[in-house]
Write a structure and sequence with these properties.
alpha/beta, Rossmann fold, binds S-adenosylmethionine, 7-stranded mixed β-sheet
Length: about 220
């Protein structure tokens, strides 16, 4: 946890109750150690969707479908969500969860490696998103970025989760275990690229495990 635990608990106590099916899914995911978005990130997404009112959302990293379903509860009625996942164990649950909702016709699950799927989407004419939520393999964010930027509409918003990795990104490279150094280097490179890109205006927030918000200029 990056922010003081007591403050986070208090802020979370103010968050709006989820519909029963979502809070059940959230509990199951936590119990089974599926890494879904935290309460703080839920509040941020809810706010961003209310502000941005996107028409097309793209999510990289479905897991069991919790965040896609969460966003479907907050998005405008005419909005749709495309979400990408490659791990079969997660897909088995995501397929069921994303079908068992009255918003099923608004949610498209694309199965496969995100880099491949993103490239295919970027090559399709007219495939553009005004809200992209990046929440997949952290070490791959740099590889996804060129395709994500192609897919992001002008003035579109890119939100990336888990960018501070429990605060370890801020530590010196030498304080990081050898095992985690590659991810540490790659995440720093990703953060530097987002914050210094001429195409983007980016802010880094210490919400949840760290979230960046980038607007395409
Ligand atoms: C943090 S979880 C996503 C959580 C989800 N957004 C939520 O909050 O409910 C990241 C997901 O990305 C998936 N993932 C990792 N590498 C991937 C890849 N190369 N292509 C597609 N999905 C990938 C993992 O299997 C995992 O389910």
């Amino acid at each position: 946890m990056i922010v003081d635990e007591r403050i986070t608990a208090y802020i979370n106590s103010l968050s709006i109750e989820l519909p029963l099916y979502l809070s059940t899914l959230e509990k199951e995911a936590v119990k089974e150690e599926v890494p879904i978005i935290k309460k703080e990130t839920q509040s941020l997404l809810r706010f961003l969707l209310a502000m941005k009112k996107p028409a097309h959302i793209l999510e990289v990293g479905t897991a069991v479908g919790f965040s896609a379903l969460f966003m479907s509860e907050c998005m405008p009625k005419t909005c749709d969500i495309t979400t990408i996942e490659k791990v079969e164990m997660r897909l088995v649950k995501a397929r069921v969860n994303l079908k068992n909702t009255d918003k099923a016709d608004k949610i498209r699950l694309l199965e496969g490696d995100a880099l491949v799927v993103l490239k295919e989407l970027a090559e399709k004419e007219g495939e553009r998103y005004d809200f992209i939520f990046m929440d997949a393999a952290k070490a791959q964010y740099m590889n996804y970025l060129p395709e994500v930027l192609r897919l992001l509409a002008p003035e579109g918003l890119l939100a990336t989760d888990n960018v501070l990795q429990d605060g370890t990104v801020a530590q010196s490279r030498y304080g990081i275990t050898r095992r985690d150094r590659t991810i540490h280097t790659r995440m720093r490179e990703y953060l530097y690229t987002l914050t210094h890109s001429e195409q983007l205006v980016t802010t880094v927030l210490s919400v949840g495990d760290g979230v960046t918000l980038s607007i395409k200029q």
